[in-house]
Design goal:
The protein has 215 residues and is α/β, with parallel strands linked by helices. The protein is built from 10 helices and 8 strands. Helices cover 44% and strands 16% of the residues.
Length: 215
């Protein structure tokens, strides 16, 4: 096979989390009578973790006098509502089933807070995917390579045997920093033209296209 294992991004790649994230941001903003955000804007803000998401959702970002209040309210609300409307994209379970049947080890790397990553991994993907890593204090967030290197080490493989799969410029940069190939998907949080401009090794429009690349 071309690759011996795969590492997936979570939000925008395996799971459509946009509605729950949008609702959580707007709940937090509404508690302080601040302007709400459209889902199309939240979609653009995703990829660099929840702190950056809240920063981009506020005028003046971290310098906004209510930043810490909004951020803490968002975290509390999202921890209770991260799975209200979230679910796998169409075709993802079929892809994971066939990868598992082919004996391909899989992992998840996400800039989402680790507790939420673990919960969503257990709820949706533990049948197929071996382990998941979210934002935590001992590993730097993407696009740093730390989380990817951790997964590759846990798999007992070298980086050229593993392909990284994601939906954003952050994922493409992560793979580049980790000296790995990247498959970029077009069903997530970035438009195809945007993805093309960032030059991943592969671009796919449907989950099952990934099988042909991995095999």
């Amino acid at each position: 096979m071309a690759y011996q294992a795969v590492i997936f991004d979570l939000d925008g790649t395996l799971l459509n989390t946009l509605e729950d994230l949008t609702n959580s941001v707007n709940y937090a903003l509404s508690q302080y009578n601040l302007p709400l955000q459209k889902a199309s804007d939240i979609r653009r803000f995703l990829g660099n973790g929840i702190k950056k998401l809240v920063e981009l959702s506020l005028e003046n970002g971290e310098n906004h006098p209510k930043f810490n209040d909004v951020f803490n309210t968002f975290k509390d609300y999202y921890s209770e509502h991260n799975n209200d409307a979230t679910g796998p994209y169409e075709g993802i379970k079929a892809l994971l089933t066939q990868l598992k049947e082919a004996g391909i080890p899989m992992a998840i790397v996400s800039n989402k807070i680790d507790s939420a990553v673990q919960e969503l991994h257990q709820d949706y993907f533990s049948e197929w995917i071996d382990f998941a890593v979210g934002e935590r204090s001992d590993l730097k967030r993407k696009p740093d390579r730390s989380m990817v290197d951790y997964c590759v080490s846990e798999m007992g493989l070298s980086r050229n045997e593993v392909v990284y799969i994601g939906d954003s410029e952050v994922d493409i940069a992560t793979a580049k920093n980790a000296e790995m190939d990247c498959i970029a998907v077009t069903w997530g949080f970035r438009d195809k033209d945007f993805i093309v401009a960032h030059h991943p090794q592969y671009i796919v429009n449907e989950p099952l296209e990934i099988l042909d690349i991995v095999k």
